[in-house]
Amino acid sequence: GAVVSQHPSWVICKSGTSVKIECRSLDFQATTMFWYRQFPKQSLMLMATSNEGSKATYEQGVEKDKFLINHASLTLSTLTVTSAHPEDSSFYICSARVSTTYEQYFGPGTRLTVT
Amino acid sequence: GQNIDQPTEMTATEGAIVQINCTYQTSGFNGLFWYQQHAGEAPTFLSYNVLDGLEEKGRFSSFLSRSKGYSYLLLKELQMKDSASYLCAAMDSNYQLIWGAGTKLIIKP
User: Fold this and answer.
1) Does residue B101 sit at the A interface (CB-CB below 8 Å)?
2) A51, A71 in Cβ contact below 8 A?
């Protein structure tokens, strides 16, 4: 299957700082990538859909100025959590969609802890 | 509205067979996905059905009935490592995935 990497796998940061998470499709091109957040024992929550070369589409209730998404190439999307607060602590997972089959493959996730 | 229903939790015995059902209602339909998610890890792709019928992949099989808005994931010869959450997701007319809440499968020895 297709491989998606995510970096870093975990990060601890202080309240008020910004954190950037990278998502890469390693062996395929992904015109569309997705960013999810998952709190413990809860379902995946789609935050935004990222299309290469255009602005991301955010789900209702997700602050676009707080969660900055950049999809600069067909293999890389980044999520920047700006001015992080403890309530932003969560498991952030990206996925990339294969353009031809629409199958969606997930990165391993990034566990963010804001102190 | 769009909706995915699947059981919250199921329990099965090692070596047995378990079927996890999923019903969906979406605006348009472009296929049904199953993912496995172990605790603390990201989901991994299991199967994709877009045509009616059963698709088999080793111990795992997935079935789809488009007319009934119904799918199931069948796991055979259960192993302890199969303990995980199983997520059903339907793709709508905009090629967006609509996710179920997941079924937590507990395997007992």
Assistant:
1) yes
2) yes
Q: Tell me the three state secondary structure of residue B82.
A: helix
- CA–CA separation, A74 vs B31, rounded Å? 24
B104 touches chain A (CB under 8 A): no
Cβ-defined contact of A104 to B42 (cutoff 8 Å): no
Looking at the partner chain, which of A43, A46, A109 has a beta carbon nearest the beta carbon of B42?
A109
Q: Mind listing the pLDDT tens digit for each residue in A59-70?
A: 999 999 999 999
Question: Which one has a higher pLDDT value, A39 or B54?
Answer: B54
How far apart, in whole angstroms, are the C-alpha atoms of residue B55 and residue A65? 43
| Closest CA relative to residue B83, chosen from B39, B53, B20, B45 | B39
Average confidence (pLDDT) over B33-38: 96
> Parallel, antiparallel, or unpaired: how do β-strands B18-25 and B3-5 relate?
antiparallel
